[in-house]
Design a protein that fits this description.
The complex is a heterodimer of chains A (about 525) and B (about 375).
Chain A (H helix, E strand, L loop, with lengths): L2 H18 L22 E6 L7 H11 L2 E6 L2 H9 L9 E3 L4 H4 L2 H4 L2 E6 L3 E8 H7 L8 H9 L5 E4 L5 H15 L7 H15 L2 E5 L2 H11 L4 E5 H5 L4 E4 L7 E2 L2 E5 L4 H14 L2 H11 L28 H15 L3 E8 L9 H12 L8 E7 L7 E4 L5 H13 L9 H12 L6 E8 L9 H10 L2 H4 L3 E5 L5 H11 L4 E2 L5 H8 L4
Parallel strand pairs in A: 1-2, 1-3, 6-7, 6-8, 12-13, 12-15, 15-16, 16-17
Antiparallel strand pairs in A: 3-11, 4-11, 5-8, 5-9, 5-10, 13-14
Chain B lengths: L1 H9 L8 H12 L4 E7 L4 H5 L1 H9 L2 E7 L15 E3 L3 H10 L10 E10 H9 L3 E3 L4 E4 L1 H9 L31 H14 L8 H16 L8 H9 L7 E4 H9 L7 E6 L1 E2 L1 E4 L2 E2 L2 H12 L1 H9 L3 E2 L4 H6 L15 E2 L5 H11 L7
Parallel strand pairs in B: 1-2, 1-3, 6-8, 9-13
Antiparallel strand pairs in B: 3-11, 4-7, 4-8, 4-10, 4-12, 5-6
The chains are: A alpha/beta (about 525), B alpha/beta (about 375).
Amino acid sequence: MSPTSRRVTVAAVALALLVTAGCTSAADEPDPGGTAGKAAPGTLRVLASSELADMKSVLAQVREDTGIEVRPTYMGTLDAVDLLAKGRAEGVYDAVWLSSNDYLRLDPAAAKQVVSQTPVMSSPLAIGVKDATVRKLGWRPEDVTWADIEKAVRGGGLTYGMTDPSRSNSGFSTLVSVASALSGAQSALTDADVRQATPRLTEFFKGQRLTSGSSGWLAQAYDRRGDVDALLNYESVLKSKKGLTVIRPRDGVITADYPLSTLASSSGQVRDDVRRLTEALRTPATQRLITERTLRRPVVPSVPPATGLDTTRRRELPFPGSRSVADGLLDSYENKLRRPSRTVYVLDTSGSMGEDGRIDRLKKALTDLTGDFREREEVTLMPFGSAVKSVRTHVVRPENPRSGLDAIRRDTEALTADGDTAIYTSLQKAYEQLGADDDTFTSIVLMTDGENTAGAGPARFDGFYGRLSESERRIPVFPILFGDSDRGELAHIADLTGGRLFDAQKGSLDGAFKEIRGYQ
Amino acid sequence: MKRIVAIVLAVFLIGGVAAAVVKGREEQGRSTATKTVRGVIGSEKAEFFADPEVVKALAARGYTVKTETSGSWAMEGLDLKGYDFAFPSSQAPAEELAAKYHVRQPLPRPFYSPLVVVAHRSAAEVLARNGLATVGKKGNGTLGMAAYLKAAGDDRTWQQLKGAEAHGELSGTLFISTTDPTSSNSGALYLAAASYVADSGRVADGAAAVTRTAPLMRKLISVQGAQQTSTDAAFRDFVSGVGNPLVLVYESQVAALLAQGQGVDDLTVLYPDTTTNSDHTVVPLTDEGRALGELLGSDKLLRGLAVRHGFRPQGAAVEFTAATDAHTTYLNQKLTGVRQAPVPASKVLHEMARRARGQGDSK
């Protein structure tokens, strides 16, 4: 898939995500407050990176001081940039506050929407390694370079988790840092650097055991598994976890500087409110609060970073200077460098799916999703009613991606609604289908519009899950709430298997499917 | 060319009606009848016009000034109907605007500020040890532009410089971080100075001259990767300890920070031995606009306030030197050993910037 087509598909759902954001409430995610809402004096509707949820108490203080309320809508950086480029932030948002504007600046259409940008705080990308692993590797944290990390990964002594670079800025910064360091590029990355570094990068990404669409779920999945040695994320995120030695590689990092940005489309009054908010955030008192509460670094010289944040300098790795390099790198990662994913879509096609055009919505959502599948990805469609109706597996082969995608579309088109709802029996079958597999990212998506009415019950499924091998138990189920499905039932499945619940009752089915991509 | 306009427009309208307007209204109630004067200004002067003391001083002289900010190069693309003046941050865009609106010469140039390179002490000392700069005991020094350009042309890395190994952050290609030259004034002025030095002291006067230095200019920009769109953001990143070891900023930014009593950990200000001045030039569109422009340059109080914001008033340097006496550690008050590079005409500079950004070789 070309980077362009991928970006287009991401953009196509940006709005859907915007509407569903907040509805996909999982335990670890803050409630983003739904849609951006109407303009109101003194209230700023801010398109924000999800990590900024930890600013809640700081923003409460700022509100007390200035009367300005921030109403955030959380979105991944790349989706936000696409939304801006399409001009869809106009009149919907008053300001943009992402972890970094580096990617935004590469897109002239998006950059045009943003006017002044003021960094509010900073956090470098880092690797948090289990204290025990640091000892085992014999590392002195201050001396560790990206090459040392690569060596440990190759030797089998280090596995790690990171967020999906297409969904999350921390993942994207990780990718750029690793590619810059391992390619030996002395200045901004070029296409040639990426090509030349591909073999080393492929080895490096073999060590990746966890992927996630958000930093919050990544941390949860890491805790649950217990056998992953490290996490790559912003220093602030890693520092807030116990038992990790946080290392900023000596040969350079990329730093998020959280620029609060005004929009060209907003009124003078709104821009003035944004300016006042920016000033309030940059006062020494607020900066102290920020560094103490969030473990990010202050950006005014009079305030020292919170205790425990090492102040020795690091080289800042240059961010690619063109969209083609950035997108080319992303494309390589998704289609070549990362471990491929294997996913079973367990799809409710019981009789009730025939109502309200539900089956058509499912078909549309799945068909749209085919634009988003990566090369080497294995997709199994497992429609069920009273029992599993069919098991059809397709692989998106790099030499001919089209044929696999066409086959998925054909099978989707052939879905029909009839029968009862055998959720648990079908899930068991999905686990059997995937089996133990440590070379890919395996997961199950469960879409159902009703309660379980046939086959095994929840208790039997719990027992089944308990008897699975350790490696099979690592396969998470991502259930999607849809139609009349039961939240409690699906939340239990997500909790049991270490997945995450997505809500398409309030939002759209397309949006839920797309958001889950970040976890596959 | 279309693309330049698009990118230039990207920085259009930064900040909106500044606080000056709000404050100005308050003042209006108290002072005697004031004239409201509207202007489009470069963003680095927004704080000056928003300063309550500036508002007060202007009101006392009968002016309420309302400002909108815009990238200097973007002003050419704006409809300036209804405005009394434009106030870009250098002469080239000002001359373009003057020609477009048939403004009579001379244009008031109330203050200026040279471009400087900020660095931490460690980086400055490594440059000095390798013959690229001279640094005294104090927090300022001189950057040898010819030597620097030679090093940049040879893809010199920090690792190849003696003494860099002691500082982990000094690695990778040696370069000065600038703003995007196609949209921002300081990035474009950097190319003006660099191309002047690279072309043996000749000011680029057309396509042939641009072509002579194009490969080097392209290199200076492309190694940086993504660039900031405003000097303000670039300086703030430096102050907060993020980013490249060498960053191009206006001297006024450093001076204003020092005037606020804030310092930067082991800051060293390197004055390029050949640099360009940012000549803040008023383009009067009405008589009121001209009167205001002249007032900014002649009024003692306003000149003093400009100094507090780090600018150097035109003419006698006394005010600047007096006001910055406490900060001679960092500032080269008399610009000793600093030569001014003339700035190419706007069209030539645009073309140079475009090619440096790799936006094709077509005209």
